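Appendix C: a fully annotated inverse folding record. The material below is reproduced so that readers can follow the format used throughout the book. The structure is listed first as tokens, followed by the designed sequence.
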């Protein structure tokens, strides 16, 4: 239902039975292209979702590049992370990274701008490089693919565990990646609380 108030870039979580969780995930760091018409949400209001494999935190796209969003989820003992992302235009994945568009965090090296590829930057400064230091054991960045609003798209899924980070699905068209979550992983994560 339409209402009044700010407009947010928002994601939602669906439960295994198809039920939509009522807690929206609102983007904390809008990129310049969306900042003119969407509001920034406070990181402290990021929700956490209980799953059979642990507590799930979701970061919308560029939020996965910023330590404040991970810190907010770490305070809630998140064990699993998901990042729905949209990278455009087409064929940008292996081109030189143009740097942060949402402000450089203190721990990001400005010299990496154009030195890293877009793929390398997503692995270094987003989920692949940040998740472990905030306590989560598993995570995935999944890129929207297709030609949405004639913008094009690019990217491949980035999967992260405590032991390793890897890229999966680096090809055209739709693909499914599997990130194994085991009972022992959940037990170890729960024991940290």
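Designed amino acids, in order:
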């Amino acid at each position: 239902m339409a209402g009044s108030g700010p407009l947010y870039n928002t994601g939602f979580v669906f439960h295994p039975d198809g039920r939509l969780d009522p807690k929206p995930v609102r983007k904390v760091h809008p990129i310049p292209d969306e900042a003119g018409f969407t509001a920034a949400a406070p990181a402290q209001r990021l929700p956490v979702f209980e799953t059979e494999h642990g507590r799930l935190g979701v970061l919308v796209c560029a939020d996965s590049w910023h330590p404040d969003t991970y810190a907010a989820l770490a305070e809630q003992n998140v064990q699993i992370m998901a990042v729905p992302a949209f990278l455009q235009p087409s064929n940008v994945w292996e081109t030189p990274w143009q740097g942060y568009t949402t402000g450089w965090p203190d721990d990001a090296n400005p010299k990496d701008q154009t030195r890293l590829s877009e793929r390398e930057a997503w692995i270094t400064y987003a989920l692949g490089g940040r998740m472990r230091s905030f306590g989560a054991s598993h995570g995935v960045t999944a890129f929207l693919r297709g030609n949405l609003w004639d913008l094009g798209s690019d990217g491949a899924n980035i999967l992260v565990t405590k032991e390793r980070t890897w890229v999966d699905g680096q090809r055209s068209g739709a693909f499914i990646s599997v990130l194994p979550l085991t009972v022992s992983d959940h037990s170890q994560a729960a024991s940290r609380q």
